[in-house]
Amino acid sequence: QVKLVESGGGLVHTGDSLRLSCVSSGLPFSTYHMAWFRQTPGHEREFVAAIRGPGGVTAYNDRVKGRCTVSRDNARHTVYLEMNNLEAADAAVYYCAADGSQSAFLKRSQRSYQYWGQGTQVTVSS
User: Please, what is the end-to-end C-alpha distance for the chain in angstroms?
Assistant: First the structure.
């Protein structure tokens, strides 16, 4: 059974930093592209960042580029999202997702990801 478990969310203030983690089990982690999405009430899930299975190649939403870094530790089956200089607009439930297609390209559509975590809430207070 595939399981993705996010952690690290919480209440922070604008300008603060936060690191989210997502631990996976039940899948060959190093072969899966991993991504972070976020969602606010009444809106679709928004792509935040993604990283290729073997690591190295990454992609970011322009809204977070320069403030967020996605990374992974394949030995620990974990993907991270480090967010700096948080803004009110970053407040959302953050989800990690796994894509086993081994595509040459990182996907930005939620429909391209087969497995999802339950989400972790990030609240940003001014």
Answer: 40
Show the 3-state SS of 72-106. EECCCCEEEEEECCCCHHHCEEEEEEEECCCCCCC
Q: Which two tokens stand for residue 112?
A: 């391209």
% of the chain exceeding 70 in pLDDT: 100
Alpha carbon of 67 to those of 23, 48, 70: distances in Å? 22, 11, 10
**Per-residue pLDDT reduced to its tens digit, 81-122:** 999 999 999 999 999 999 999 888 999 999 999 999 999 999
Output the pLDDT for position 102: 85
Rounded to 5°, angle at Cα 62 from 67 and 39: 85
- Please name which of 33, 29, 19, 44 lies closest in space to residue 120, comparing C-alpha atoms: 19
Q: How many CB atoms lie within 10 A of CB 33?
A: 25
